[in-house]
Amino acid sequence: MAEAPASQYAVRESARAKHVRLLVSTRDGGLTVVIPRGFDRRKIPEVLKEKARWIERAQTRIVEQRRRSGAETGDGLPALISLRAVGEEWQVEYRPEGCRREGEAPDDQRILTLFGAVEDEDGCRQALCRWVHRKARAHLVPRLLELSRKHKLPVTRVTIRSQRTRWGSCTARKSISLNGKLLFLPPPLAEQVMVHELCHTVHHNHSRDFWRLVGSLSPGCAELEAELRAAWRYVPIWLE
User: Fold this and answer.
1) Is 108 buried (19+), middle (13-18) or exposed (0-12) by CB count in 10 A?
2) d(Cα 166, Cα 218) in Å, to the nearest integer?
3) What parts of the chain have a pLDDT lower than 50?
């Protein structure tokens, strides 16, 4: 793929950035390259070339994500967050008052409020990502441990990460990592990922024995695994 011309992306320097980040606007699909201070801008075209597939995928999902994600604020930030895996919908409010922080109303209201510099879109995205990570740790870890006990497939450790290309992973030491974005998937798909990774505690491969074990624990696993290949469409653009 040819390198993207300079006119097709904007560059923003950030004192907080430790590495190059790519942001696709939910308003118009525009691409912003966030770079650390001192980064050599001549390297940006090479970064874009390496990430071309991700950029194309993100931009083609804009229309569908706007439809699926509900209302948005004028800045392309979410006004509604749907955590499908746990059946929760959270209304998001932005208040330019007080110090930068986020807070939740009682669970029966499910309102998440961001306070402070709400005009800083990147800062708001980071705050929302931290909130999603905490929700994932609170919901996904207990569910995986419950399935571990149910199927008698013990694990040594469970962590939450935010991978861009994998829903989960399992080490040879039976340590499982789950992608926090699983919260946005329908429950059957999120649970299929957990069963899949638990089966890797027995078979650290994708052999026939592995798939036989998956099938014994998850009827209809073939259809669910096929759906997972396209499940990134459920993940809001602002989270990436």
Assistant:
1) exposed
2) 20
3) 1-7, 69-75
171-182 pLDDT tens trace: 999 999 999 999
Tokens matching residue 188: 């059957």
pTM: 0.69
212 token code pair:
């036989």
Reduce the secondary structure of the chain to three states and give it as a string: CCCCCHHHEEEEEECCCCCCEEEECCCCCCEEEEEECCCCHHHHHHHHHHCHHHHHHHHHCHHHHHHHCCCECCCCCECEEEEHHHCEEEEEEEECCCCCEEEECCCCCCEEEEECCCCCHHHHHHHHHHHHHHHHHHHHHHHHHHHHHHCCCCCCEEEEECCCCCCEEECCCCEEEEEHHHHHCCHHHHHHHHHHHHHCCCCCCCCHHHHHHHHHHCCCHHHHHHHHCCHHHHCCHHHC
Q: Which CATH number fits domain 139-234: 3.40.50.11540, 3.30.2010.10, 3.40.50.300, 3.40.190.10?
A: 3.30.2010.10
Query: What is the per-residue pLDDT for 70?
Result: 46
Contacts of 107 (CB under 8 A, 6+ apart): none
Query: Tokens standing for 193?
Result: 């990922």
Give the C-alpha separation, 166 to 30, whole Å: 25
For residue 124 the two structure tokens come to: 């708001």
Domain boundaries, the chain: 6-60, 70-136, 139-234
Cα three-residue angle 62-64-70, rounded to 5 degrees: 100
